[in-house]
Structure formats: structure tokens, C-alpha cells
Amino acid sequence: VMRTGGQVVGPVVVGSVEYGPMTSGTPLIVVLGHQRCGAIKAAYEAMRDGKTLPGNLQSISDALRPAYRETVKKKHADPVDAMVRIHIKQTAADLRTNKDLGPLVKKGDLAVVSAYYSLDTGRVEVLTGAPSA
Fold it and tell me: What SS3 state is found at 54?
């Protein structure tokens, strides 16, 4: 389990994620986002308002920029929630096509799933990447 603000991954986190599948055959990676994510809310509001976040929080906001761009293309009842869902799908897709993990996914040895955890209900909703069997 690796936990990062806004489910943002960088080289050290990706290396840590790669470790299990590449060394011991770990068959599943789950990118789990959650309802009311404070890091994504802060990044969304900063980008919307053209502001910079303090310290290294800005690096989280920078990593979330692709999800923000996708979010603002459409009107959403809850744009922060939409951005959470978009970002976790993008992160899982990036891992699925990673140069080292991609071949494992193609062979069926690894599934990379994006999922959303509801704080209100305690339920996890699989968004993308669920194995077929």
C-alpha cells in the first residue's frame, strides 16, 4: 500500500509499484481515489483561481493538471469529484502502458484497476481495468 496526496505518482512511487509485478508476480495494482479528496480539491481550486499552492504542494497540483484540463472540458455537478475520477483513470491508464508493466498487462499477468472509494457508503466502485475472469 502506497498513499500519496491526490493519488499522484512520480518515479519513486512508480518504481515501488513496479517492484511487486516485476520481481514476484504480483497480479493486481489498484489505483484507489476517494470521495472528497482534499489534495485534489486544493489543486482544483488553485488552478481554477490561477493561484500557486505553498511548498511542495504545488508539485501535486502540477501533476494533477492533465486531470484538471479534462475536468473543465465539461460541466459537472461536482467538478472536484469528477477530477478525482478522471485522475485515477488517467493514472491507471499510465501504469497499464508503462514500458515495464505494459507487457505484463498485455500477457494477462497483471491487471491495473482504477477504483473510487465512497466515504459516505464505504463502497468501492471499479472504474476501469477490471480483469474479465
Answer: coil
In which region does residue 25 sit, left (phi positive, over 0), alpha (psi from -120 to 50) or beta (all else)? Answer: left
Would you place residue 1 in the very low, low, confident or very high pLDDT band (cuts 50, 70, 90)? confident
Give the number of other CB atoms < 10 A from CB of residue 116.
19
Paired with 10 in beta bridges are none
What is the domain partition of the chain in residue ranges?
38-106
Q: Taking a C-beta distance cutoff of 8 angstroms, is the pair 64, 4 a contact?
A: no
Per-residue pLDDT tens over the stretch 66-120: 999 999 999 999 999 999 999 999 999 999 999 999 999 999 999 999 999 999 9
Nearest-CA neighbor of 62 among 16, 115, 9?
Answer: 9
**Which strand (E) or helix (H) includes residue 117?**
strand 111-117
Q: Which residues pair with 114 in a beta bridge?
A: 31, 128
Q: How far from chain centre, in Å, is Cα 25?
A: 22
Closest-CA residue to 87 (of 131, 133, 132, 47): 47
Residue 84, Cβ neighbours under 10 Å: how many? 27
